[in-house]
Amino acid sequence: MSPAVPHPVPIFDNLSHIENPFRHPARPSEAMRKAARVSASTLQSDLQLCSEFLYSYRGSPDTFGSYRREIERFTQWCWFIQGLGLAEVRRQHIEAFVEFCQSPPKHWIGGKSVARFLDSGGERVANREWRPFVVKVSKRDHKLGQAADAGRYTLSQSALQAIFSVLSTFFNYLIQEEHVELNPVAQIRQKGKFLRKRQGAQSIRRLSEAQWHEVLNAIDQAVPENPERYERAMFIVSCLFGMYLRISELAESDRWQPNMGDFRQDAHGNWWFTTVGKGNKERDVSVSDEMLIALRRFRTFLGMTPLPLPGENAPLVPKVRGKGGITSTRQIRFIVQECFDMAVDRLRAQGEPEEADALQAATVHWLRHTGISEDVKFRPREHVRDDAGHGSSAITDRYIDVERQARHASARKKKISPA
């Protein structure tokens, strides 16, 4: 291990374990004080500013998580490697940090995501297995026994964009707090040497019609052997596909507890589902006739009235054991992944190895993409945009691939040889 780059030290805990820094000042841990190459006063004041900035995003766990990741990497680099306080950071330091992130030292790269802190004897202690960067293998390669290799770590374009975006927001905050005078990220005139510009829309990853069909068939076939497990699975995938929900919109959290009463009928007899999505934004999703059938099926299985009654507060996706709704997005991922795996086996048995291989690489979020992609073929894009919670029609347009298909069709008979 190079002495110039010490072992990483976790800094910011989970929201549930962070005290309000506006009431209880943030204190550096003993490990942070030992690793820091800045003065104790600089470390203290910088940590306080970071904690206040992150805590202001407590209403959106997803945003908090992504901001914490970028701020933690940056402050680790500043305090523990470069010996820089936040007020000393300039444009050239941001560029050097980005280059560091593109090729971090191997002992800063982990093979899996783990918690930053663990409970030990009633206290929160740093997890020695945690790393600021993580290299991952695809689901397919993992099943084939391939392990994560730190030497194969790469920083994606989306990750690079996140660095610039989060740090720019952070330094604007520091300007408002009168801690710095200029935003060093904004001073970088040639971000293009780091970020690639893409010509044309990037294709959306989605399930094929055959793959989606087999996912539904696999669940239906499994229902008789374990109705409690697979009726719930069928309802979950129906919500993800039929209402374009994100996983975070199905799981209970501090900011959002989805329940059956979120399905409501208006004065015209139309059904809507109210959810809270990215940025803590509430939206109403139109509920199709087939989604109502899926809702009736699940509620009937649970012994409830076919459709929700006004004011009903039963959890949308109840736990199999215990009271309340599912609180873990990881559990929902596991449920859907099991359904994908069953469908993969069915496709292989039917002699469709290519479809099976493609489905093996799919993630749960593909269900949302697939539902949007299917509906935008025949619904007005503005309607799909509002149901999906897209910030603009330009995002929804990415799901329209008619022009892309036509472009490929016109290219199919291009000649290379004159003969």
UniProtKB/TrEMBL annotation:
Coiled coil: none
Cell division in keyword set: yes
GO annotation, biological process: cell division; chromosome segregation; DNA integration; DNA recombination
One Gene Ontology molecular-function label: DNA binding
Subcellular compartments: Cytoplasm
Domain Core-binding (CB): 44-175
Gene3D superfamilies linked: 1.10.150.130, Intergrase catalytic core
Main location: cytoplasm
PROSITE patterns (UniProt xref): CB
InterPro entries noted in UniProt: CB (IPR044068), DNA_brk_join_enz (IPR011010), Integrase-like_cat_sf (IPR013762), Integrase_recombinase_N (IPR010998), Tyrosine_recombinase_XerCD (IPR050090)
Transmembrane annotation, as ranges: none
Keyword match Cytoplasm: yes
Keyword vocabulary terms for this entry: Cell cycle, Cell division, Chromosome partition, Cytoplasm, DNA integration, DNA recombination, DNA-binding
Gene Ontology cellular component annotations, sorted alphabetically: cytoplasm
Record's protein name: Integrase
